[in-house]
């Protein structure tokens, strides 16, 4: 017999009897199903004592990337993404063409006054 070998083949040093009592307390949990727009179901597990308002209503489906909700008959739809807006596009939303022309005229007057004053001195 070889010295230093384990008395029981395949067991690790310090391993004890297998069983739930030795592995710690198994927390109670609940399973929540989510469905995406394609009908795919995803199940997430949460602690049973978690308040209902902390369980998300919508998650991202891991298979499709679509939003998935708890209502199988009415899954959430993918929100329409708006195209990227430039700074000029946001300015045009806030100002009318007449306001823009007035602001441009005021800015040009100030610029001409500064240039005119700088060349005199």
- Category from helices, strands and their pairing: alpha+beta
The helix/strand series, from N terminus to C terminus, equals: HEEEEHH
> What about the largest sheet?
2 strands, antiparallel
* Average pLDDT: 82
Tell me roughly what share of residues is in helical segments.
25-40%
What is the gyration radius calculated from CA atoms? 34 Å
**Overall strand count:** 4
Low-pLDDT runs: none
What overall geometry do the principal axes of the alpha carbons give? elongated
Question: Termini, distance in Å?
Answer: 107 Å
Count of alpha and pi helical runs: 3
Strands across the major sheet, in which order?
1-2
Beta-strand percentage? Answer: 15-25%
Comma- or semicolon-separated keywords:
single chain, 121 residues, alpha+beta, two-stranded antiparallel ribbon, two-stranded antiparallel sheet, 3 helices
Question: What do these coordinates show?
Answer:
The strands form 2 sheets. Strands 1-2 form a two-stranded antiparallel ribbon. Helix content is 30%, strand content 17%. The longest helix is centred in the C-terminal third of the chain and has 24 residues, at 97-120. Among the domains are: 27-69, no CATH class; 87-120. A hairpin with a 6-residue loop joins strand 3 (58-60) and strand 4 (67-69). The mean pLDDT is 82. It has helices at 20-23, 87-94, 97-120; strands spanning 29-35, 41-47, 58-60, 67-69. The protein has 121 residues and is of the alpha+beta class.
Write the layout of secondary structure elements.
Layout: H1 20-23, E1 29-35, E2 41-47, E3 58-60, E4 67-69, H2 87-94, H3 97-120
Antiparallel strand pairs: 1-2, 3-4
